[in-house]
Design a protein that fits this description.
Layout lengths: L2 H29 L6 H21 L7 E6 L6 H17 L4 E6 L3 H9 L5 E4 L1 H7 L5 E7 L7 E6 L14 E4 L5 H13 L5 H4 L2 E4 L3 H10 L4 E5 H6 L2 H4 L2 E6 L7 E5 L6 H13 L14 E2 L3 H13 L2
Parallel strand pairs: 1-2, 1-3, 6-7, 6-8
Antiparallel strand pairs: 3-10, 4-10, 4-11, 5-8, 5-9
Helix pairs in contact: 5-12
Length: 316
């Protein structure tokens, strides 16, 4: 075979391989969206929200054959969230001959707005956000997210750390979750205050925030942080090998979990049936399964949020 023919065959094979890679890339991109910056996050949320709004407006919203549920998702967790939560919601909705839709809100206020405008039948927000905003908007808590054990906040260090109490954390680098997180910020601050640490900015050398608990855990193990705050539900989801590299130095008192909200009025007829199936499904989810806390729910106690609201107002 001549050199020119061999080159032609080789070029043809390369073109076929390239076409295959491009096609596969297109398929993967369709199913996987990854973002790394706040600006990228806004674009992803905007595009997803606009696309879903169009779907909802054209769907049989009156009969709620589609059941949109709204969440906020930590930056970098979108793909994992869709893979772990989407099929579970669909299992629940299929029992009602319906189809679940994941709706994405940029923050708690956006989730509330989407619920009140009918773009979602139910939304997930933090306990702190609910305590702050429940009297400003006509919303009700339909579920409290709660595992088989009470939810707590944990202060976690590396297993080889000499720290064993708050006193040992002076001049270290701490990573909280987000400032509207009950378990990741509000309760940890109260625990520090109870230990005599009135101003964390003067006690810690560096304070960081990361809404992605997986990333903050990796940051602790890599030496980026000296101590991080985790919920016990997330800690229990970690594999045994990773937990063996960590050490809990403080556990908070039990705290109320985040809530699922619905509009206080004009609720779609299918909502109650969906809530019943949602709770029934949650009873089958193991505490060690990833994101189990999103499905293990109970009836919320309004007095918990009254006390939380008072604590927020008093600056505790």
């Amino acid at each position: 075979m001549s050199t020119s023919k061999r080159n032609s065959i080789f070029s043809g094979i390369l073109l076929l391989l390239l076409a295959g890679v491009l096609a596969m890339g297109g398929i993967l991109w369709k199913d996987f969206v990854f973002f790394t910056t706040p600006q990228g996050l806004d674009e992803v949320f905007s595009n997803l929200s606009n696309a879903q709004n169009e779907v909802f407006s054209n769907a049989a919203i009156g009969s709620r054959r589609e059941i949109p549920v709204c969440f906020t998702i930590p930056q970098g967790d979108l793909f994992r969230f869709f893979v772990l939560v989407g099929p579970r919601l669909q299992t629940i909705a299929s029992r009602l001959a319906s189809q679940a839709k994941l709706d994405i809100g940029s923050d708690a206020a956006d989730v509330i707005q989407r619920v009140l405008t009918g773009k979602a039948v139910m939304g997930s927000i933090s306990a702190v956000a609910y305590a702050k905003l429940r009297k400003q908007h006509p919303i009700i808590a339909v579920f409290e997210r709660a595992g088989p054990r009470p939810k707590t906040s944990l202060f976690v260090v590396r297993v080889d750390s000499a720290a064993s109490s708050f006193a040992d954390l002076r001049d270290t680098r701490i990573c909280f979750r987000a400032k509207d997180s009950m378990s990741g910020y509000f309760v940890p601050l109260r625990e520090l205050k109870a230990a005599g640490i009135e101003d964390p900015s003067l006690f810690f050398r560096q304070i960081s925030y990361n809404d992605n608990l997986t990333n903050s855990t990796l940051g602790l193990l890599s030496g980026e942080f000296d101590v991080i705050v985790l919920s016990n539900t997330f800690y229990e989801e970690l594999d045994e090998e990773r937990r063996q590299k960590l050490k809990i130095i403080h556990t908070s008192k039990p705290i109320p979990g985040g809530v699922y909200i619905a509009a206080a009025a004009s609720q779609p007829a299918i909502l109650q049936a969906f809530l019943s199936e949602f709770q029934r499904y949650g009873e089958t989810v193991l505490a060690t399964e990833p994101l189990a806390g999103l499905f293990q729910v109970k009836t919320p106690n309004p007095s918990d949020y009254d006390m939380l609201e008072e604590a927020i107002d008093s600056g505790e």
